[in-house]
Every structure is written in structure tokens, then in C-alpha cells.
Amino acid sequence: MNSLILIGYRGTGKTTIARKLGEQLQIPVIDSDSEIEHRSGKSIADIFAQNGETVFRDLEESTIAELLQQNRCNQFVLSTGGGVILRPETRCRLRNAGHVVWLTATPATIFRRIQGDPATTTLRPNLTSLTPLDEIINLLEKRNPLYAETAHEMIETDFLQTDEITNKIVAHLLSE
Known about the structure:
Rossmann fold; 5-stranded parallel β-sheet; globular; 60% helix; alpha/beta; 9 helices
């Protein structure tokens, strides 16, 4: 079995699904955003506010590279941040490191999930000056081709329960 790497916009369920997959497959789970916060001693929102997006993306790229290198001989589940696909080098690293699953949802579903998550407003910064829903629509339009380029598999999460999503991923792995 390959290691699993979850990509997608925030609010698509990457962290929740990663934890569930780790339990089900009995393999370690790594959250790249948590690892970045741990290494920097700052929340992602603070990194964006104090240092800007470029510094965050530099941290993200180096953290992903190190995590993939450290765990190259082990099976694991990696949950990534929503913008992890913005740099070509990182897209290539992810695609070559394991089975990349792109979790998707409609802008309305993402908006609803983000609004319902208190951690989102305190830990995850807005990336544009647009309204939250317009930002989601705008960023998805730009990022969807990059997610598609990186992923081996896509799962729409709008109407699926956590168990249904994890079962689809496991079934796909077992069929390889």
C-alpha cells in the first residue's frame, strides 16, 4: 500500500479523513499545517500576518519536502494545507510520494463548513479582500487545475459521510 496524501481546499475534510484513515489503516497521520505551526512556533494566521504568504509558502514547501524525505520508507497519511499545490516542486513531490487524493466540495458546502468551524476564523487567514464566499469561488477557479494535476484520485465530499469517504479511499488502494 502506498502512503496517502490528502489535498483540497480548506473545509473539504482533509484533517478529519486523515485521522479516520490513520485509525482504520493503523498508520501514522501527519498534518502539514500543524507541523508548520510547531516548527515556527506561530499559528498560520500569525505567519501570514507577520511574514506574508511567500514566507508561509517557503515554510510549507520545506516542511513538505522534509516530511516526505523522513517518511519515505514508511506508510503514513499526510493531510496538507489548501494551498500546498501552488508550487510546481511541491506538486511533483506529493504526486511521486504516494497516492494523492483530492477531496472536493462545492463553494457553498465549503463556505458552510468554514463558517461552522470556530478554528477556521482564528487559525486560517483570509487570502484576499473578497467576501468569504467570493474568495472560495475565486481561489477554487485558480487552484482546481493544480489539484487535478497533482491528484491520482478525486472524491466529492458534499454528500458523503466520513466513513463513506474513507471506505472509498481504502477500496481504491486495495484495488491497485
